Amino acid sequence: MSQTERTETADKPTVSSEPEPGSASVNPRAVCGVCRHLYREPKILPCLHTFCSDCVGQLERFSAPPRGLVTAAEAAEPRRDSLSFTVLCPECDTEVDIPQSGPAGLSTDRLALDEVFLEALVSGGPLGCDLCGEGSAESRCEACSLNLCEFCRQAHRRQKRTASHSVEAVTELRARGRLCRPVLCSLHPGQELRLFCQPCDLPVCLECAATLHRDHRCRPTHDVVDRHGDRIRELVSARLRPRLERLEDSLQKVEISQEHLEVRVDETANQIRAFARQYASAVEAHCLSLLRRLEEIRVQRRNHLHLQRAQLQQALLDVRGSVEFAERLLSCGSDAEILSAKGVTLRRLTSLAESGYDPHPATVAPDDGVCFLPREPAGEVEGYPLVGVVHSRTVDVSRCTVEGEGLQQGTAAQRGHFTLVCRDSGGERLAGGGEHVLVSIVHKEKKNCTVETVVADNSDGSYSVSYRPEEAGQYSVCVCVRAQHVKGSPFILNVQRKFRQHNGTFHCCSFCSSGGAKEARCGCPGTMPGGFKGCGHGHKGHPGKPHWSCCGSTAEKSECLPQSVLAAVSPRGHLRTVEL
After folding, report:
1. What angle (nearest 5°) sits at the alpha carbon of residue 169, between those of residues 180 and 338?
2. Beta-sheet pairing, 370-381 with 384-392
3. CA distances, 458 to each of 203, 377, 432 (Å)
4. Averaged pLDDT for residues 448-457
5. Are 105 and 8 in a shared domain?
6. Which residues of 248-269 are buried (b: 16+ CB within 10 A; e: fewer)?
7. Do the Cβ atoms of 516 and 534 come closer than 8 Å?
8. Residue that finishes a domain, picked among 344, 363, 382
9. Which of 62-71, 195-204, 321-330, 474-483 bottoms out in mean pLDDT, i.e. has the lowest?
10. 432 and 294, same structural domain?
11. Which of 6, 122, 172, 565 has its CA 20 to 30 A from that of 510?
12. In a domain, 376, yes or no
């Protein structure tokens, strides 16, 4: 057996008999979630879940990028997984990319390999020899990570290259209950990954540093592991650990709300039945009508809470699994193991920290507000006047309405207004305020052009919204209640530029309107001889009809032209109107 084959065998622990995965004594971290057996070549998916290499290879492809469609960025700096295909993770149903080379291109979960070997030690099962494959292993070489029978152990000692390796008895390792496992180079068997190439972002051995990475800056792994590990710690402690706590708290609130919903619905149903028993057939019919209404509310609320619960559970599983993996990698992994899994770990943690589901506290587990009002008039049934209605004080986002002309039309530099009316599931306006309302107005062409909005709670179920756009154009108006869009949102808002009012006089000429003042000027290009600075009838530049002294426009009901336009058509180069 070649040394390369022996090195590859080190990543495949030889266990002659595997314990039953369902047994309570089996370490779940050593068992694959797909085949339910001890890991064989465990690989880390981008979502930080680990499965056997063969199990990953058997997953059905979810999607694959079309060939030939390569972006300019990928052409300039191609990634190893630029031709990857997508599968669904069996654990969390996340879409993950598998390199074109298949599971072999994924990072090896060396912590899982340690768990498999430790499980074999703890279970007391016999270990096969990694060299001859025939005898029962009694020793283990810590440098080569090989299990050796007595004959192979003696041969291992006699070889000059391996004579100095530390070989320990399997019984001692079993009593100790832990494993110090070096990470070896796949290109140079027997060489441990002790250096880290910074340009390539890879752990390398001494031979790799002297040959393949000769001109690169390589540093010992123990000098750089803290800096890279700190990035993982920062994401976990500063961003994901607080989110994990919020998700757990939100999920607990939803579960409590589900219990309260059932209790409150049952109590309301009992009240309805006690009230309905006092009436005859018409009252009984009314009772059934009320119960149907109550059931509709329960189904609606239950579906909403079920959806929230599912979203929170999935987000919690994603964050918890990634945090546990990262913390275990930092606490149990060696320097080389941390650096080997650093890339996939950081990508997953960054993805969760930046785009994960993180609900606002005001949107989680709202008070359902289901109650029965026995004295409220309910109309007539078969000629009998009845009372008693089921009331839901909780807002139904799908029934909320937005009113006011300011929602469709606006004017630049002028304040616009519209009103949001919150309603319950029956379409009735709520009697109080306190809802979490968010209004966002963004220019559809200029994404960095936003409009500051002011939302005022009127404490009667309505919310007054005011805004002041500075630029004309088409805007997108998002109106959300409890982090959900109301019906019709986002709306389209057309903002027109401000109508410019004239600040001059609509006259026949500056000579007449000023009483013959020589200093009187006009917005038109007309001039008079004799030192007059404005226009006169029949003289050069006079428009020949009444016009505005401020801009020269001949239309009385018109907008005052901006000076930039007037300067382009005026031979004077400047326009100034004196007050006449």
Report:
1. 10
2. antiparallel
3. 62, 27, 8
4. 88
5. yes
6. eebbebbeebbeebeebbeebb
7. no
8. 363
9. 62-71
10. no
11. 565
12. no
pLDDT, mean over the chain:
79
Q: What's the structural domain count of the chain?
A: 4
**Quick one: 563 and 527 in the same domain?**
yes
How far is Cα 478 from Cα 440, in angstroms, rounded to an integer?
A: 5
Percentage of residues in the chain with pLDDT exceeding 70? 82
What does the pLDDT read at residue 170?
Answer: 76
pLDDT interval class at 3 (50, 70, 90) = very low
Across 21-25, 210-214, 368-372, which has the greatest mean pLDDT?
Answer: 210-214
Phi/psi at 262 (5° precision): -65, -45
What is the domain-level CATH number for residue 405?
A: 2.60.40.10
Rounded CA separation 107/337 (Å): 10
Q: 524: helix, coil or strand?
A: coil
Question: Tell me, what's the pLDDT at 7?
Answer: 41
DSSP-based helix, strand, coil % in the chain, nearest 5? 35, 20, 45
Average pLDDT over residues 393-422: 88
Cα 128 to Cα 138: distance, rounded to the nearest angstrom: 9
Q: Residue 543, preceding bond cis, omega within 30 degrees?
A: no
User: What string of DSSP letters covers 148-185?
Assistant: E-HHHHHHHHHSTTTTTS-EEEHHHHHHHT----PPBP
> Which residues form the domain of 572?
502-580
Q: Does residue 284 surpass a pLDDT of 50?
A: yes
Distances from the Cα of 166 to the Cα of 139, 142, 162, 188, angstroms: 10, 6, 9, 19
